[in-house]
Automatic annotation (TrEMBL):
Residues 1-17 form the signal peptide. GO terms for cellular component: extracellular region. This is endo-polygalacturonase. Pfam families: Glyco_hydro_28 (PF00295). It catalyses: (1,4-alpha-D-galacturonosyl)n+m + H2O = (1,4-alpha-D-galacturonosyl)n + (1,4-alpha-D-galacturonosyl)m. Its EC number is 3.2.1.15. One of its GO terms (biological process) is pectin catabolic process. GO terms for molecular function: polygalacturonase activity. Transmembrane segments: none annotated. It is found in: Secreted.
Amino acid sequence: MNALIGILLVSASTALSFSLKPGASTNCTITEISQVASTVKSCQDIVISNLVVPGGQILELDLLPGARVTFEGTTKFEYFYWAGPLIRVRGENVHFQGAKGSVLDGQGALWWDSKGGAVPGKPYMFEIDVTGGLFEDIFLLNCPHHCVIISSTDLTLDRWTVDVSEGNKNNLGHNTDGFDIIYGQNVTIKNSTVSNQDDCVAINRGQDMLISGMDCTGSHGLSISVGFSKHSFLHNRVANVVIENSVLRDGDNGIHVKTHTDGYLGEIRNITYRNIRMSGIRRFGAQIQQNYPSGSGPPVGNIPITNLTFSNITGTMSGKNSMPVEITCAENACIDWSWSDVSITHAAKRSTCSYVPKGFNC
Ligand SMILES: *[C@@H]1O[C@H](CO)[C@@H](O)[C@H](O)[C@H]1NC(C)=O
Ligand SMILES: *[C@@H]1O[C@H](CO)[C@@H](O)[C@H](O)[C@H]1NC(C)=O
Ligand SMILES: *[C@@H]1O[C@H](CO)[C@@H](O)[C@H](O)[C@H]1NC(C)=O
Ligand SMILES: *[C@@H]1O[C@H](CO)[C@@H](O)[C@H](O)[C@H]1NC(C)=O
Ligand SMILES: *[C@@H]1O[C@H](CO)[C@@H](O)[C@H](O)[C@H]1NC(C)=O
Ligand SMILES: *[C@@H]1O[C@H](CO)[C@@H](O)[C@H](O)[C@H]1NC(C)=O
């Protein structure tokens, strides 16, 4: 008993003297990776300044509640063959900001081989696992693989730039998804720009999301992709999503909604796409398919799509493979879709629809 109290007193006084040591908790600027662990434990207002992150190490920002973090200068991630992520944020009500001119440089070209995820060893870049968060003005350059992976509640991302345009060179960049929401509850992504070689935004699971003011170049589109779980209905559910006021240029797809035939049961419900303008799209203006991943096999109705609303979806296509709209639905698994002002022109092929939404002439 006495020994135990003794230990508690000693450890309490050690902690006290440590935290009162002059300077120990006052300098909250991180310039070297060795400063990260202690700084995030003691600081509410952190600056990450021209940090070089060694390959194979996560820049792990496990923050105090309410912490603020500012990126300054170039945060550079060195080469290593691993899964990543390069940076991971966890916390409650955190606020991130990129200072003017700041860049997070993933140096993707060191990994790119045109094979993407098919050849392992390319790290995911920026993982966000928070409850309450605002991330503003972040510039992400050259992700080795997927760029931003979100698993969060009450999160807003505003004014991001994800620039992987260098990956277009010799088609080396591949699977460089912009924003992947693997779980979201009340997540907003707005006024952001993505130039990459896979989905601009992909939503896998969750509800109450707003994607607004996206500018996507070269992407595979604004996507909803559901059915990764083989066991859980809740993991295969996306509901109450608005995707709006966005522009897509020179990509494979504009809008893409797909359900995985090899997944468990689930649902996609109450989704609205509105005010989307596309140009130079090469494959599908809008593709909604219940036969993913084969793309050619029979559709399966394990994940019905209910109340899919399109309004004011316009633009142009280019190239011999272009088709405005392809809808591949299993019987009775596409329900109550209502579309208006969907007009995608200059396609080489005609639309095909196994289900015809109300208000649309296929
Ligand atoms: C304190 O911050 C400065 C930047 O303002 C940084 O260069 C320096 O490494 C930090 N000093 C210590 C002792 O951590
Ligand atoms: C949704 O998240 C935002 C922060 O991104 C927060 O301000 C807002 O209160 C949340 N809404 C609800 C209903 O919790
Ligand atoms: C995007 O930015 C524009 C111009 O600053 C602003 O008017 C608009 O409200 C923003 N969009 C959202 C969803 O906040
Ligand atoms: C449909 O989604 C919108 C946008 O998220 C939401 O405001 C609305 O309440 C949802 N409707 C139902 C019936 O859940
Ligand atoms: C249709 O969407 C475009 C953006 O793609 C927007 O500029 C236009 O105002 C929208 N039209 C209506 C009637 O909302
Ligand atoms: C779903 O569609 C049905 C039929 O059009 C409509 O009555 C209902 O209000 C819609 N629900 C939502 C959430 O949009």
